[in-house]
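Kindly review both lines to help learners:
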Amino acid sequence: MGSYQFKEHDEEGLHTLEAISLAHHFNAWMFEQVQPFMKGRILEIGSGIGNISQYFIDANADIIMSDVREEYCNALSQKFPKNQILLLDLVHPHFDNVYSHLLGSFDSCFAMNVIEHIEDDHLAMKNLVSLLKVGGKVLILVPAGPLLYNDIDRGLFHFRRYTSKTIDHLFQSAPLLMEKKWMFNALGIPAWFFGGKIMKKKEVDGKQMNLYDKLIPIARFLDWISFRKIGLSIIALATKR
């Protein structure tokens, strides 16, 4: 859906991460989606400024953070000086050689709103899985619904939005054994449509995110009554074969 060049300074992405960082109810809800499945030595892909990382650290989890951008890695190092931070590029042309010391070394791994930023998502997933031990768990959260693709997606350099079928295809090529999939944040759909389609915004607005954070109890209830079959995002959990 998009064609972009990598930018070291991700201004739109940083503004969005900063806006979301203040949405404590939303971040806690995101953390609840991934935390039950992450055990042992955990790798977070695309940690950004640590919005979700903070919850794992508070829970005394054995987590290693990573990002493809040096500016985010530096920010993480300042925020979490006691934790290991990796500069990690999932589509590095010499991935196996550069990251040979990390291959097969993690028990679990997660990537929240990361894979959609990578043009060759199949290569990214293949390399991500190579970092896991056999039987290790991987969880990803990605934007759902190609018809929802709008100016915010373009502003955040999203190459695509996913469907259940494209997630299946992505995991099968990894190779991964799918365990479960569910939709997340149905209430976010009208907010995303309004912001990106009607208002033509290119990043998540701080005031809008603050307002939305107050609605998280309603968002949780809506996901519950819809049996997590509708959502702005899709979450998938799988095991390395």
The domain at 11-240 is CATH 3.40.50.150 (Rossmann fold). The chain has one domain: 11-240.
